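Could someone model N-(aminocarbonyl)-beta-alanine with this protein?
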Amino acid sequence: MARLDLVVRNARLATESEERRCDIGVADGRVVALGAGLPKCAREIDAGERLVLPGGVDAHCHLDQPMPAPMKMADDFASGTRSAACGGTTTVIPFAAQAKGQSLAAAVADYHRRAEGKACIDYAFHLIVSDPTPRVLAEELPGLIREGYTSFKIYMTYDDLRLSDREMLDVMDLARREGAMVMVHAENSDAIAWLSDKLIAAGRSAPAHHAAARPPAVEREATHRAIALSELIDVPILIVHVSGGEAIEQIRWAQARGLNIHAETCPQYLLLTAAHLGAAGYHGAKCVCSPPPRDEASQAEVWRALASGVFSVFSSDHAPFRYEDPHGKKPGGREVAFPHIPNGIPGLETRLPLLFSEGVLKGRIDLRSFVALTAANPARMYGLYPRKGTIAPGSDADLVLWDERREVTITNDALHHAVDYTPYEGLRITGWPALTLSRGEVVWKDGEFRGTAGHGQFMKCGLPEPARLRRIAARSWE
Ligand code: URP
Ligand code: ZN
Ligand code: ZN
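Reply:
Sure, complex below.
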């Protein structure tokens, strides 16, 4: 056995596939031994029979992503990864976004400059492909995939990002040839624009109308279209941030047909509803994200789909804009009509505690499914497994010791992002990470951030393994 430089003793360890009591031996930032009675070591942490889980992998978050002026994201790689670490996440995968007319390689180089020396936990990049020119398809993307950027998001909405169906086919075709993963934001752009114009003409410009401009049918149609396009090409895709029952129905239908369709959901679709967009004054802007949160019946559908294996990934979709800020939810310092409110809500730090409390402790999902959804599956999906997403000899010592019984009332004051609100203010939950280790280094302990900017390393992603994702067993009551 390698000489240990850390032992985490008396752990109740859980991964996606096993639960056991053991000590965890770490050398050079990696797990090297699991077992009872590991030799004494100069550095020891007593887990005291508490739960130790793999560090979370947040595979959908936006950090310091270039935005059209005057918008600017509140979190950069320093504040974003700090917040993630304090909530038990040890890997983030944000997006290097191509602007139309820009080369993808330039977008990646710029994003590396933004990240350099700032992250306190490890990170990889997805790409956002907004301009799949012949050169991008023939040269840039294949080259970047080989260099470790193996997943890319494409949009069916947002004027500055959306692709036509033909462009989507081009990108999917390339992904099939190279074995890469396409992530799809599925909402029908023209329908949203048409509905938005009608609502604005009728004087309905408040944040609450954001939900009416993007009803479930808009997401359902685009989800079905994305599935049909992927079927034509015969390529796996992942539908991101699925909000409710209608889109889920399409995904279930596709999965039942044997199509290689994967799906992701986020805390906002379990815990927020469209009523949050109608908060007094302009405060609903805080919950403007796309697709929008739906209703309680829809939340129940998302829970059911999480428990029955429709979703393989649970991400935050952290998109950080401050509320009282001319670069944020009040662009230029004004309360604007809903189509001009920057989309997105913060959630890197609360993602794991929310799902642990409301999912595991309330019996809606089991512990192994929690680990699969929040760590193992995203690591597999994006080619980082088993370095990330599990606790096994050879994996990085990214460990989270959970304080399962700790009662927490979420307040923005206690969070570590640079956003001036959380949509979950005042929510009472149970459980929070007591300690987070990133490659064996303490980054969060006893309610204090202990990380160091620059500790986090860039990781190249391998090719995705969608066929090997753990399917969560259907519940008997389904
Ligand atoms: O509203 C959202 N989801 N904002 C972030 C960007 C995206 O589409 O994921
Ligand atoms: Zn999106
Ligand atoms: Zn997003």
